[in-house]
Design brief:
single chain; 391 residues; mainly alpha; 2 domains; two-stranded antiparallel sheet; 15 helices; 62% helix; flat
């Protein structure tokens, strides 16, 4: 029965104009946001002897930036941020949709000043002498954590936000290492596939809801619910067949665009004589994008069956989506169901976050299963005994 229902759902889905609008949207993101014309020469570092001339031309932007890992450098950057916020009189706070500028009152400004005084004297502003730092790294952490609480939480001094944006210029040696990693460890295609999944994942986090939210409403509109209730089809079979069909149908376009990117990079690799991974785009599509699709569809179906109204699912999904995509990388907490890694290459940074990304993806796959089972249970309750109308 499941397979018969699955095949029927495929027929219905592929007759729905919304699916083709969805494919067009995904295609626009692919062709306008993801560049499949990169070559290794674009990322080959220029020797320091040529750097000054290239920088003056405005074409070359240097070797890029890397995260600050030295505790003393971190303290310096945060100290300067404290001074800037104190002088400007406002801070940024994380909200559900966007970061919000919050003006500081006199007491809050005093908290900033006291934190600075505890960390280093005022002369540290103009003299980057590590000897002026008065506290250990642990003491510094306690100071900024306490400050975050006094300012109401969710500030850039929280553990979650403090390190975001703290970076320093890469050296030529750093750039050479990144280039070697791109060729040898990433085989170029893994780096490209991460960027591909970053852009494509944005579409997977919202647009599927326009199909998911109304898939259960379709039978009500076509007056098929009485027929469904009169047949010995379990609620779980009915819901799971719809869920599985929609998940597969929406995953297919991503796999097709992944195939297109694979062909292009295969030709680039062949022309430039470097190794590539044929499975890279498929691997990241299934590992990064698929769980996002599964969750978006499961949540849309759950909300629509709870309220008997698919419209409600759209603004709910939009709020969660905006919250998830607003950082370009470095935040893979369980509140983010879209994986952002908006960088081509940067293998060492990816490895640093790989375990967090894995935990995130596993979490959302489990949550998706739980949500669709809850949807089946609720639908079963509303369906009532076989032969009754759905309430």
């Amino acid at each position: 029965m499941f397979w018969n229902l699955l095949k029927k759902e495929f027929k219905y889905i592929f007759k729905d104009i919304t699916l083709y609008i969805f494919i067009v949207v995904v295609g626009l993101f692919y062709f306008t946001q993801f560049s499949s014309s990169k070559t290794t020469e674009d990322f080959k570092p220029i020797p320091p002897s040529e750097l000054k001339e290239k920088l003056s031309s405005g074409i070359y932007k240097g070797y890029g930036y890397k995260d600050i890992t030295d505790p003393k450098k971190e303290i310096r950057e945060v100290y300067m941020n404290l001074y800037r916020d104190y002088e400007e009189g406002y801070i940024l706070k994380e909200r559900l949709l966007l970061n919000t500028q919050v003006n500081l009152d006199d007491n809050q400004k005093q908290y900033l000043k006291e934190a600075m005084e505890k960390i280093a004297p005022e002369e540290y502003l103009n003299n980057n002498d590590e000897g002026l730092i008065k506290v250990s790294y642990e003491e510094y952490l306690n100071i900024v954590r306490d400050l975050d609480k006094k300012l109401g939480g969710s500030t850039n001094y929280s553990d979650k936000k403090r390190l975001i944006g703290l970076s320093e210029p890469k050296t030529y040696e750093d750039a050479v290492k990144d280039y070697k990693d791109l060729l040898e460890k990433d085989k170029v295609t893994n780096a490209a596939a991460r960027e591909f999944s970053d852009y494509m994942g944005i579409t997977a986090g919202f647009f599927p809801v326009f199909l998911a939210a109304f898939i259960l409403m379709k039978d009500k509109r076509s007056k098929m619910q009485e027929l469904i209730c009169s047949r010995s089809v379990s609620s779980y079979t009915y819901i799971l067949s719809k869920y599985a069909a929609l998940c597969v149908a929406l995953l297919i376009p991503y796999l097709l665009f992944a195939t297109h990117a694979t062909v292009i990079f295969y030709n680039i690799g062949k022309f430039n004589n470097y190794d590539i991974s044929i499975l890279a785009f498929y691997k990241f599509t299934l590992w990064w994008i698929a769980p996002t699709i599964f969750f978006t569809i499961a949540l849309g179906m759950l909300i629509s069956v709870i309220f008997n109204n698919g419209i409600i699912a759209i603004p709910v999904q939009f709020i969660l989506w905006i919250n998830s995509i607003k950082t370009l990388g470095g935040d893979y907490s369980l509140s983010k169901f879209v994986i952002r890694f908006n960088t081509f290459g940067d293998y060492s940074n990816y490895i640093k976050w790989s375990s967090s990304i894995a935990n995130n993806r596993i979490f959302y796959m489990i949550v998706s299963v739980v949500l669709i089972l809850i949807t089946s249970l609720i639908w079963s309750k509303k369906r009532g005994a076989v032969g009754e109308h759905i309430k």
